[in-house]
Design brief:
With 575 residues, the chain is an alpha+beta fold. It is built from 17 helices and 30 strands. The strands form eight sheets. Strands 3, 7, 8, 9, 10, 11, 12, 20 and 23 form a nine-stranded mixed beta sheet that branches. Strands 27-26-28-29-30 form a five-stranded mixed beta sheet, with helices on both faces. The protein has a four-stranded mixed beta sheet with strand order 14-15-16-19. α1 crosses α13 (448-458), α2 (44-63) packs antiparallel against α6 (167-187) and α2 (44-63) packs across α13. The longest helix is centred in the first third of the chain and has 21 residues, at 167-187. The structure holds adenosine-5'-triphosphate and magnesium ion.
């Protein structure tokens, strides 16, 4: 491709609303342009990258035996009502009406549509197993679209769905997709980890996310230094502490804490550690107006774990200060667990909070706390369950090693759904005994567009993007010096451009009338793995200057040597 054929849309300034480096570089390198919040156009070079990612995903899906289909993006409401998600999915679902006032939505995911398809197509166990996939735009009305195409509203997803007769079959299909995902992310040159994950609004019993490791990632991953345990913090279990310490010998004591409301204020005032205190978070309940969640002072609530409690309203909502004052006659900073159960408020304590025997907590009186509180002696026994986030240094739930935390970008997610959708929507087949059996499903998503941003987060330097070879929009670029003045340069450029393309390589020829410095900077920004400079001086020696974008290494090579250098590049599909 010649740059003269399309305007290179690079810009110097870093756009103000771009917080993360991938968003900045994608805008600066002219890969994407914003239409509206969370909506982006893919420009020619960006689209080449996206298509390469898609091509690798397709190849590996096909290798794993999955069949490509394409379902509509617009889905009828009836299917979502059958599965129960028309309400449950919440405001992420973009709903619309057609001219007959029938309800539709723009698909955020396709479990309902594919289940509807398969309940009509599949009749017998003999047609199983089957896995289908598609690559398609999805729409989710994200609360906070940000980081460019990383968290967009419309984005490109590869979604696959497997159908089996039984659980074991589903697990085999799941493993095939898991392996295909590992192959895809490895080929894309990404540093990633499969991690145990929560199943969220998709549902099912078991799932893994594929996380690209990057400090800018929105997800926190807990991993053990003593085993291969890796889990999203949303799911990572915090182990039950060992034997309880001996009961408190000192009776509980009411103390004045006139202005001390937060854990920091209370611990500083009393000269104790946060580990010796408990805090009570009052949230809205499902069947009672309020629910009390009790955590050790140094621990953080895990909202995903809390939302799984039958007592707690979904989504998790903290009770308004006015409501607490009205119901408990006390302000938030002085709330403690003693006496709450007696007022009809379910008290649910995290394992570590429940393990304390001599702690400090609010006294449910403004300006007062209790010291030396002992659960058994001073409170009604709470319900005890894991509701906190694990933290650095916690024991690994598999009993091997300690946990550490790092950040990741979720690029893929695989789920064992079981019969969640097939039961709700009546998708059955006959087994070899002639009995009707609900299909066992799996579903498997990849954020195709998000991968492009995730790759940039991992691969960039101060000059721009450093594409892994398999994702690069071009294998190399040619920058001729004085193309428009020197006949010799012009002839050599055309000849090399033709010869490289004949070898199947994707070449960007920068034939603009620009200063060399401008062209070099643009090529570095776009991140093409190799740059070949053609100049009269080099030609006099029969050589081209070849620079490796990643290492900066420069060498003077003949045409044959350039061919040899690029021989191992995984070829860009000619587009
Ligand atoms: P997230 O937790 O990031 O919101 P999710 O868990 O809701 O994602 P899934 O339902 O698992 O997403 O969707 C499959 C894949 O689609 C994700 O792993 C992610 O790579 C991608 N994806 C999801 N939401 C977005 C989005 N708003 N923009 C771009 N890609 C997305
Ligand atoms: Mg997910």
């Amino acid at each position: 491709m010649r740059t003269s054929r399309f305007p290179l849309a690079t810009v110097k300034e870093t756009p103000a609303d771009a917080e993360v480096i991938s968003h900045q570089l994608m805008l600066r390198a002219g890969l994407i342009r914003k239409l509206s919040s969370g909506l982006y156009t893919w420009m020619p070079i960006g689209l080449r990258v996206l298509k390469k990612v898609e091509a690798i995903i397709r190849e590996e899906m096909n290798n794993a035996g999955a069949l490509e289909i394409l379902m509509p993006t617009i889905q009828p409401a009836e299917l979502w009502q059958e599965s129960g998600r028309w309400q449950e999915y919440g405001p992420h679902l973009l709903k619309m009406k057609d001219r007959h006032q029938r309800d539709f939505c723009y698909g955020p995911t396709h479990e309902e549509v594919v289940t509807d398809l398969m309940r009509q197509e599949l009749k017998s166990y003999k047609q199983l197993p089957i896995t289908v996939y598609q690559v398609q735009a999805k729409f989710r009305d994200e609360v906070r679209p940000r980081f460019g195409i990383m968290r967009a509203r419309e984005f490109l997803m590869k979604d696959a769905y497997s159908f089996d007769l039984d659980k074991q079959g589903m697990q085999v299909s799941y493993q095939k997709m898991y392996d295909a995902y590992c192959a895809i992310f490895t080929r894309l040159g990404l540093l990633f980890r499969p991690v145990l994950a929560d199943t969220g609004s998709i549902g099912g019993s078991f799932s893994h996310e594929f996380q690209v490791l990057a400090d800018s990632g929105e997800d926190l991953i807990a991993y053990s230094d003593g085993s291969d345990y890796t889990a999203n913090i949303e799911l990572a279990e915090s182990l039950a502490p060992g034997n309880p310490p001996s009961p408190s010998k000192t009776p509980k004591e009411l103390i004045d804490t006139p202005t001390q409301q937060t854990i920091v204020e209370v611990t500083q005032f009393l000269g104790v550690k946060p580990e010796q205190t408990v805090k009570v978070l009052i949230v809205k309940g499902k069947t009672t107006p309020l629910v009390a969640l009790v955590l050790r002072g140094d621990h953080e609530l895990n909202t995903i774990k809390a939302e799984k409690l039958p007592e707690v309203a979904i989504p998790l909502q903290f009770a308004e200060p006015e409501l607490i004052l009205q119901q408990l006659n006390c302000s938030i900073g002085f709330i403690g667990p003693i006496g709450l159960a007696e007022q009809g408020i379910p008290v649910i304590a995290d394992r570590d909070a429940a393990h304390l025997t001599d702690f400090i907590c609010g006294a449910n009186l403004v300006g007062k706390h209790f010291k030396h509180v002992d659960w058994t002696r001073d409170c009604s026994p709470p319900q005890v369950i894991d509701i906190r986030n694990v933290k650095e240094g916690d024991l690994s739930p598999d009993g091997k090693g300690q946990l550490h935390l790092r950040r990741g970008i979720e690029v893929g997610h695989v789920f064992q759904l079981g019969d969640k959708y097939s039961q709700a929507m009546g998708a059955t087949v006959l087994n070899d005994q002639g009995q009707s059996i609900s299909l066992q499903m799996g579903c498997y998503g990849i954020g195709v567009s998000r991968i492009v941003a995730a790759a940039i987060e991992q691969h960039h330097d101060e000059h721009g993007i450093l594409w892994p070879a398999t994702m690069a929009p071009f294998d190399l670029c040619i920058v001729p010096i004085n193309l428009h003045r020197s006949e010799a340069v012009k002839a050599a450029t055309e000849s090399l451009y033709e010869a490289l393309q004949a070898k199947g390589l994707a070449v960007l020829l920068d034939d603009r009338q620009e200063r060399p410095g401008v062209m070099f900077a643009d090529m570095d920004l776009i991140g093409i793995p190799y740059r070949v400079v053609i100049s009269e001086r080099g030609l006099a020696e029969g050589k081209f200057e070849c620079k490796n974008r990643k290492t900066g290494e420069v060498s003077q090579l003949t045409q044959e040597e350039i061919f040899a250098l690029l021989q191992n590049v995984e070829m860009t599909t000619n587009m």
